[in-house]
Write a structure and sequence with these properties.
- The protein is of the alpha/beta class.
- The chain folds into 2 domains: 181 residues, Isopropylmalate Dehydrogenase (3-Layer(aba) Sandwich); 143 residues, Isopropylmalate Dehydrogenase.
- It is built from 11 helices and 12 strands.
- The chain has a 10-stranded mixed sheet with strand order 2-1-3-12-11-4-5-10-8-9, with helices on both faces. Strands 6-7 form a two-stranded antiparallel ribbon.
- Helix 5 crosses helix 6 and helix 10 crosses helix 11.
- Bound molecules: 3-isopropylmalic acid and manganese (II) ion.
């Protein structure tokens, strides 16, 4: 039987409750489709930081490289200053494990309400490929004369030809494999960010010649926000930089029904990838058994798809769709009509 070594990082806040249901569904899928998941839980997160003073133990990255994938809950603790855990754990792992793609599907399931009242599952089904290791997230910049009236703060967007090209290539390949509209939209801001997106745009059309079967499309990020609300059906795959990708995928999560169902993958095609609900740790729901675990369950499905268990991944998605169409009243925490645990059981039932 095939076996996969998975690191589980439940993390903070509602993370552990979401992950618990995610694991329940993953286990059910592994039994049904005959593979084994060898899972090891790691305690990285805010609680550990408050107790020990270190964000990650020494050798954490090397240890994580031994796993085939990481199943992550959420990082973020109300008692820890913003930035410490995000940079020290989440972004650190994305960078050190070179997970250069952040893959975020935006798909409305039957039975789920979107705030776009005239749109349904036919119209809302696209994928955002977000560059995940460069741009404004690279941490380049600094202060000059900090704390004085003449203070200067610089935050630079780093865009390397290598980083841009490998992200674009991934997006072209992904779009080809997805095999729908075969249309790739570059989301940028070439009218203002005339260096960074000049590089993106040039590289896009240059390597695009190797993909004659893919339609190439370009739109500015502000216009993309408008079209995502007005005509989301025009999108198939969108590729963009780290910062714009962060912003437009929160908008995407809302039009697909909410953070309760939005999942993503941090992907290194040749290394260890990490799958997570994109919504964060929702600390106010901690321990109440009311958080929606569907995002974590969908992240588990994406992980199986990435590992090559395509049938099991498709079955999880189908089970989630059935639960959405038949049972769950709302995707919001506390309004689902079921507890966190019951939603996990429902999905296992359909599976
Ligand atoms: C996300 C989050 C992170 C990001 C934060 C927590 C650093 O918003 O995964 O989208 O900005 O990438
Ligand atoms: Mn975000």
């Amino acid at each position: 039987m095939k076996s996969y070594k998975i690191a589980v990082v439940p993390g903070d806040g509602s993370g552990p409750e979401m992950v618990r249901e995610g694991i329940k569904v993953l286990k059910a899928a592994s039994e049904k489709f005959n593979f084994h998941l060898n899972m090891t839980e790691l305690d990285y997160g805010g609680k550990r930081y408050l107790q020990t003073g270190e964000v990650l133990p020494e050798g954490a990255v090397e240890e994580l490289k031994q796993y085939q994938a990481i199943f992550l809950g959420a990082i973020g603790h109300p008692e820890v200053k913003p930035g410490i855990l995000e940079k020290g754990i989440l972004l650190h792992l994305r960078f050190e494990l070179d997970q250069y793609i952040n893959l975020r599907p935006v798909k409305l399931y039957p039975g789920i309400d979107t705030p776009l009242k005239d749109k349904g599952p036919e119209e809302i089904d696209f994928v955002v490929v977000r560059e995940n290791t460069e741009g404004l997230y690279a941490g380049s910049g600094g202060f000059l004369r900090k704390g004085t009236p003449h203070e200067v703060a610089v935050q630079e967007s780093i865009n390397t030809r290598m980083g841009v090209e490998r992200c674009l290539r991934y997006a072209f390949e992904y779009c080809r494999e997805r095999n729908r509209e075969k249309k790739l939209t570059l989301c940028g801001k070439t009218n203002v960010l005339t260096y960074a997106f000049d590089l993106w745009e040039r590289t896009f059309y240059e390597i695009g010649e190797e993909y004659p079967d893919i339609k190439k499309d370009y739109a500015h990020v502000d216009a993309i926000c408008m079209w995502m609300v007005k005509n989301p059906e025009q999108f198939d795959v969108i590729v963009t930089d780290n910062m714009f990708g962060d912003i437009i995928t929160d908008l995407g999560a809302m039009i697909q029904g909410g953070m309760g169902i939005a999942a993503g993958g941090n992907i290194n095609p040749n290394g260890t990838s990490m799958f997570e609900p994109i919504g964060g740790s929702a600390p106010k729901y901690t321990g109440t058994n009311t958080i929606n675990p569907l995002a974590s369950i969908c992240a588990g499905g994406m992980m199986l798809d990435h590992l090559g268990e395509k049938e099991a991944a498709a079955a999880i998605e189908k089970a989630v769709m059935s639960a959405c169409a038949g049972d769950i009243k709302s995707l919001s925490a506390g309004k689902m009509g079921y507890s966190t645990e019951e939603v996990g059981n429902l999905v296992v039932g359909y599976l």
